[in-house]
Design brief:
Two copies of one chain form a homodimer. In chain A, the strands form three sheets. A six-stranded parallel sheet of chain A has the order 1-11-10-9-12-13, with helices on both faces. In chain A, strands 6-5-4-7-8 form a five-stranded parallel sheet, with helices on both faces. Helices cover 45% and strands 17% of the residues of chain A. Chain A has helices at 11-18, 26-42, 44-55, 66-70, 80-101, 136-149, 168-177, 187-197, 209-218, 243-254, 269-284, 289-294, 305-315, 327-331, 348-353, 389-405, 409-416; strands at residues 3-5, 106-109, 112-120, 123-127, 153-158, 181-184, 202-204, 223-224, 232-237, 261-266, 296-301, 319-323, 339-342, 379-387. The first copy, chain A, is globular. Chain A folds into three domains: 3-21 and 229-356, Nitrogenase molybdenum iron protein domain (Rossmann fold, 3-Layer(aba) Sandwich); 26-104 and 120-224, Nitrogenase molybdenum iron protein domain (Rossmann fold, 3-Layer(aba) Sandwich); 388-422, no CATH class. The first copy, chain A, is of the alpha/beta class. In chain A, helix 2 crosses helix 9, helix 3 (44-55) packs antiparallel against helix 8 (187-197) and helix 5 (80-101) packs parallel to helix 6 (136-149). The interface between A and B is large, with 124 and 124 residues. Strand 13 (339-342) of chain A pairs parallel with strand 14 of chain B, so a sheet runs across the interface.
């Protein structure tokens, strides 16, 4: 890997590093539209056919059966790690709900009370990738905030193995966190199933480009969490960083997929060189070496901290590690990011699994305008207004003037009619 | 207008009342795609051409000039009503920010601190409809929460009159609330302008089907607030309601556009009949009588309060007035709604302008899964994690087990490497 000076990048080189994700291919767009159309018109039968075609699993029934569910004893010791992670995720997200519920009422004028109240989205559909690998952590990260939000139905879709089964760890995770139904399907057909067959009101979760495109295509009909693409990390470091930790964390994102991105931005040429050496060493030992080798990796040297921070904000990384002398001071200047890790012992993979923070995060620059998945993702604050006659009287004239300015006669009238008998 | 029993509606009749909005026509989809394509490739020139074509205004420059801006004295007495409304909107939304900023830090394990911090979306684009009518209230409802959120650039797009000017009330509203730039264009081309020419990171605001479709088509590239369609009100009332108030409020939504919806659901046949009579009387006097006559209006009689509440939740109204003996008790059972008005003096139009609550709300059933526009719409809570070495040690084993379960070797390694020297 070449070490490059941030300031010497051509605008084309800089644009190439900043651009991730890119346009969805016409093939995926058309393919997804066809799958969704089939699921809309033919329902479960179409989904089972796609599951046979894409996952190689021959199923009679989309839903995990009561027997399959009962066969996994989620209280077994082997699942203690799920429980410990779930407890941390629970703490972090319960704190969000407490904050949500603490919003006060406001009296904007005497007799005009205005406030917001929390209401859960009733039916939500969550997606966990699967097939070859299995992602129990993604089940926890979605179902826990959904349950805390108060959703009454949480439908999990995840693709089966070729033999039609689901991994017992995934089933255990779903049972531990209160998923109400599990369906065995993946890809665009799973997104179609959640919306057309199960009628969910919001779709969440990470997935491959087919899953993301299916969510996008349905987003004029149903709420979705965010566009979420390949994983990425940016590490902003100075000489206080430990080269072998930095290299290990860059590789932890690089192993996700060949389209993942890992970037080190540092003010220290010495660190840049040491990390480069470490990367070579550590890569040799990795189980997923081939994937990690293919993914995009950059070491960029900044002239000063401001330049590094400016680049980080422009990149808007999903994950940002700040390994500098004073990480909290740097954090204050970071505006575009999903999840931040401060200091040498806040290793990004810890946040993927067990710090309690959510790992469903905006990627590809969407950290500029989307937040991490949270309790807020599974509900909404509705507005409430309560006016006394005197309170309405205080804003009567204002409303009449707006009614006149906007040509909305009946608007003004519905307020003045309440005072008519007094004239 | 026919009074109907809710329980006797055929499923087709019920479905027809519940269905609003419906599918966007192919003509609009194609037309919008062409406009966005033109704006992407030809920029300002294309926008000016569309403005001539659709708004009949011949402009040389998209942006409101410094002279036009200076010509409006927003401190004039005639704009006091804007200031009073803005002060109320400010109070309600400042309260949201205070709540957002009060979220606590959590220590999920000893040495594992996790929290969220607020960051504004930097550049936002807000849309206010215009042309024939003019909507200064929509400027306040978007720019105030954006400014409170901390957005550094707030670009307002609104269509000009035929003579190329903007209404002075709209300009005054924009100046009062700190809009940073005003562009004179409307429709799909305005949405294209905000994204392609001004590079905003989020698009908000109500509009006609062209505006909404343009936001939808761009929603895989940029964040949008919500799909927002024709206005609607549902009034849930018992005998404690005042028929002429109810009729006036039903008409206040009916006058918006021919595709607006107004529904009364009541347990009282007497109220139903009295409201029907009042509607006839009041309609005759309305300035926008022809529009109000065309829009969809229903009076539905429910057998009991539970049936009425069930229907309200299924309908998921943008605006809900609860005019019953104990409105707060009913509110507890309402889950799907945008903005609620409690009691006989909480007239819905008061919330359109001056209670302080936001009037940009989900319609067409989207109140099931979208919230009213708020400070949260203009920013995001980023996640932060800070682990001590001991803290990381506490979750080391959990992370290793997830790494093993999910086949993510380098994930486990980046944690264990931090403890290597100790073995």
């Amino acid at each position: 890997m070449k070490i490059q000076k941030l300031a010497s990048l051509s605008s084309a080189e800089r644009a190439e590093i900043l651009a991730r994700g890119g346009e969805v291919s016409a093939k995926i767009k058309t393919g997804v539209a066809e799958i969704l159309q089939a699921v809309e018109t033919r329902g479960e039968q179409a989904i089972l056919e796609f599951t046979q075609k894409f996952d190689g699993a021959d199923l009679n029934n989309l839903e995990l059966s009561a027997d399959e569910l009962a066969a996994v004893d989620e209280s077994a010791d082997e699942f203690d790690f799920l429980r410990q992670a779930a407890a941390n995720i629970e703490k972090f997200h319960q704190n969000q709900l407490q904050n949500i519920l603490q919003e006060k009422r406001v009296e904007t004028e005497d007799g005009v009370e205005v406030w917001r109240e929390w209401r859960a989205i009733q039916k939500v559909g969550i997606y966990a990738p699967g097939g070859l690998a299995t992602y129990p952590s993604s089940v926890l990260m979605q179902a826990i905030p959904a349950r805390i939000a108060g959703c009454s139905e949480i439908v999990l879709a995840t693709p089966p193995k070729k033999d039609g089964s689901l991994d017992s760890v995934v089933i255990a995770a779903a049972k531990i966190v209160g998923v109400t139904k599990i369906i065995k399907c993946g890809g665009a057909q799973a997104i179609g199933a959640l919306y057309y067959v199960y009628g969910v009101e919001k779709l969440t979760g990470p997935g491959n480009p087919w899953v993301t495109e299916a969510k996008t295509q349905l987003s004029s009909k149903v709420a979705i969490d965010m566009p979420a693409g390949p994983s990425e990390i940016l590490i902003l470091a100075d000489d206080s960083a430990v080269p072998k930790f930095v290299a290990a964390d860059l590789l932890s994102q690089a192993e996700h997929a060949a389209d993942s991105s890992s970037i080190l931005v540092t003010m220290s040429e010495k660190l840049a060189e040491e990390v480069e050496t470490e990367l070579g060493k550590q890569l040799a030992d990795l189980g997923r070496k081939e994937i990690a080798e293919k993914s995009s990796k950059h070491i960029l040297v900044a002239e000063n901290l401001d330049e590094a921070i400016g680049f980080a904000n422009e990149y808007a990384p999903e994950h940002l590690e700040i390994c500098t002398e004073e990480p909290e001071a740097v954090l204050k200047q970071i505006v575009n990011v999903g999840s931040v890790f401060l200091g040498n012992y806040s290793s990004e993979p810890a946040g993927d699994f067990a710090t309690g923070a959510n790992h469903v995060l905006p990627t590809a620059g969407f950290a500029k305008n989307f937040a991490p998945l949270s309790v807020e993702s599974f509900g909404k604050k509705i507005q409430v207004q309560k006016l006394s006659k005197a309170g309405l009287g205080k804003i009567c004239e204002v409303c009449e003037k707006f009614g006149a300015a906007e040509g909305l006669d009946a608007h003004a009238k519905s307020i003045s009619i309440r005072f008519e008998d007094e004239n």
